[in-house]
Amino acid sequence: MSELPGELLYTEEHEWLRQEEDGTVTIGITDHAQSALGDLVYVELPEVGAELDAGDEMAVVESVKAASDVYAPVGGTVLEVNADLADDPEKINSDPYGDGWIVRMRPDDMANSNTMDHNAYQELLDSLEG
Amino acid sequence: MGKRTPLFECHAGSGARMVDFGGWDMPLHYGSQLEEHHAVRQHAGAFDVSHMTVVDVTGADARRFLQKLLANDVAKLAAPGKALYSCMLTPAGGVIDDLIVYFRGADKYRVVVNAATRDKDLAWMEQQAAPLSVALAERRELAMIAVQGPRARELAAALIDRKSREPALALAPFSATEDGQLFVARTGYTGEDGFEIILPGADAADFWRRCVDAGIRPCGLGARDTLRLEAGMNLYGNDMDETTSPLVSGLGWTVAWEPPGRDFIGREALERERREAPRQRFVGLILKGKGVLRNHQRVVVAGKADGEITSGGFSPTLQRSIALARVPSGKYETAQVDVRGRLLDVRVVKPPFVRHGKPCIDL
């Protein structure tokens, strides 16, 4: 069902991470995650400049159904948050890998990220379906 | 695998996301809960509520039985077709369930109770009925479809049996008409006008498809919950249960104290509670800023004990978070809610929040 962009990395908690050419990373939640949550109505974003460890609570996405934590897939410093989400949280539903991005970070060390490639994530999703 | 209503195949075919609800496989939404919510406020939506339990009560003692069983008084139902909302209480005054009872004529009533409470409700009702001349018949062969929204009655009436159309459109709020197996009530759980239609399970899928073809939007349990929350309507298991009385659940209005001689189950406990002045009251909350209030969050009131949110969520109509909550007695217009460790300001208001498509509260 969900199409998985091959250039992204994924986490067990259903975040995605894109390594940009300038060494920063962009982070969001996957199509599977937004679909499971349902219509999003509020996103709590971190402060720009916040320093996070891998696995720290980074943001909270709230749907009509439930609140869900978004964890930092990698440690680093928050450079930018997607301020559009304050008024249009549903962008995460309509475009989870594009306009629905959540945070841009400068990672401390990508070697220590909790991520997997799209094939491994697809296997995880398949195991959840079954 | 859970129990399935006669509309299960329709839901699966419409791309519903199914969830377990009280042992039933039910649709949560068909793509967008928000769009379904707005469809009901602005146009019309259809809900499969066939999981609910329909019980027909008949016999010479039917009225006596219900006057004992229910905190509201079925003697108020003067004409056939009239409906009454009531709680069914434990002797200690806790709520076993909330229900709608319809008067169908001499010695004939129909009771609709919740799905998740079916087993205990039926056991309790059978126990109370045993010494009386009354028969209880669960109508599992019937399906139930709620069609709700400003255009709902007009659109749905065109789809029901010709003979029932005029009587259905002539119904006053909170009353029903029936012809054979088709039972149409002007009731609902959304704060909008509409019908709840009980019909044979074998006819349900066809009726559902014709509703959809007529532009009535299929709506899941998700929208049902946000609609009833905006309408300030209680949900059993969230807002009241056997540990809470109707008096601290915003349901004091459903208790018929008159005549004083009617000895309904729970009366003594409720009278004691009323004399002692309840320590809690049931209110609405509106979050002033951004965020979402959720069930079980702590309500903090200056100088008083803590309260608790019983139903919290996002109001798609108000574009704010709202909640129902049980809070300490007293007069105050603001409080705070502990939202994951942060205290957020809320206004304390009297529900409902939304009725007939319009906000009831100035934001």
Question: What does this entry look like structurally?
Answer:
The complex is a heterodimer of chains A (130) and B (363). Chain A is of the alpha+beta class. Chain A has helices at residues 31-37, 91-94, 118-129, and strands at 9-10, 15-19, 25-29, 40-44, 51-52, 57-63, 67-71, 76-81, 103-107. In chain A, the strands form 2 sheets. A 6-stranded antiparallel β-sheet of chain A has the order 1-2-3-9-8-5. In chain A, strands 4-6-7 form a 3-stranded antiparallel β-sheet. The longest helix of chain A has 12 residues, at 118-129. Chain B contains 9 helices and 21 strands. The termini of chain B are far apart. In chain B, helix 2 crosses helix 8. In chain B, a hairpin with a 2-residue loop joins strand 6 (95-105) and strand 7. The A-B interface holds A 38-39, 41-42, 44, 60, 62, 64-67, 86, 90 and B 17, 28-29, 32-34, 222, 226, 290-292, 294, 313-314, 316, 321, 340.
Instruction: Please provide the count of β strands of chain B.
Output: 21
Question: Helix amount of chain B, in percent?
Answer: 10-25%
As a percent range, the share of strand residues of chain B is 25-35%
Major beta sheet, strand line-up of chain A: 1-2-3-9-8-5
- Order of neighbouring strands in the sheet with most strands of chain B: 10-11-12-9-3-13
State the distance separating the first and last CA atoms of chain B: 44 Å
Structural class of chain A: alpha+beta
Q: Residue ranges of chain B: pLDDT <50 for 5 or more in a row? A: none
Query: Structural class of chain B, please?
Result: alpha+beta
